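Exercise 7.
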Amino acid sequence: MPGVDAIFLRPSHFNVFVDSFFEACTIAFNTRTGAFRALDEKAYADFLNLIEQAQTDKLPNTPGASSFIDELYQDGFFVADDLNERRLFQDKYKESQAKGRGLALTIAPTVNCNFGCTYCFQDHQNRQMSDQDQWAVVRHVEENLEENSSLSITWFGGEPLLAFSKVESLAQTLLEIAEARQCSFHQTMITNGYLLNKKRAQALANFKNLAYIQITLDGPAEHHDQRRVTVGKGKPTFKKILDNVCDAASQIPITLRVNIDKSNVDGLETLVDEIVGRGLVDKVHLYLGHTLPYTETCADVEQTALSREQFAVIEARFKLYMIQRGFRNVVALPRPNLGNLCIADLPNGRVISPGGAVFKCWNETTLPKAEATAFLGSDGVAKSSNNDRDKQWQSFDPFAHTPCQSCNVQPLCKGGCPWEALKNTTSEPGHCTPLRWSLPDILRLYHLETTVQTSLKARCNDRTAYPCP
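Solution. The predicted structure, written as tokens, is:
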């Protein structure tokens, strides 16, 4: 008989079982806790027996009775019979929203751009931050940054390198404020890389706590130069960008984003091969972006856009090819999203554009000031506009979509991109993560990559048995 301290268990609603690439091995994964186990045949059979017992009878977890049951309980594969798992991670999200400290700012020193990309979601205008605009940003940070919290800055645009002197000035001032208040500080930059010459690369290398800069290469030259060209003259940009990446990669952490649709997916392997040939395997991080009609400015791309399921399949194949070509740490273990989704649903997150316009989402950066959700005064105070866009963001609920309530991948995305999720009614799903379709393949690839890397490390550590080259 179970003791008085026994907890009766049931299997989690968020368990996923996947056949591994390795024989007689099954992967168990829980999307709510992120727990991952590779089970041999006996352990998997024992697991299934426990599930059957819980479903047909009662499965007690008496302290000290079974280490295996207790391990599965601690990992979240089994939960208390009366636990509402969905409510649990929803409550954690709300707690993180209420307890949020620090500031996360996306700053666009200009909304102008030197590129005329065919699928761009922005309507570029020749506007830069004035000295008054920059002072308002500084005052905003001074007024709102709590001591012993954090300050996170993303330099965005338009193209931020068009206004690099403003970036340098603001970055140093904001760093000094953060250090004076004993706050952690880190920054990133989103740039097309065309203006990343050696002088600017060296200047960025001197930026304190620059986590990475993101640069886009949309396939090899034959594809990239059809999509990402200079504004006005339409000059090709691939070679210059890749040359800049090669020069800068030893100084700055670089992430390469590849935006894909039906028109350029056949060039992905060629791009990877070129990056390998340029000696960048251990110097850059590479990932795919899904080209979508985010705004009216790029509505035409809907004709060539991949479905979410198509993108998920291509992304998994792309990761496999990267592993085959020698990239490391390609596949991250999917993690449950316990905090905010992005800057759009972060209480202390703001996108600040020239003229003191404040928005919630990167997709809104170049919108007219009249559509801003708030306005930054010279005193640094962000005054709510209380317009329709502001009200829509204030009412955003990542759990509002009914179809998401029965999805076992929900903890990994919480409805996905808020900007896209807001376009759908509550009777439709949010913006589904590719993992809805590709989770089994991603788990297999993660297991494959980590197993191979562990094996290679063991061989290198045992030089007598397995001499390393």
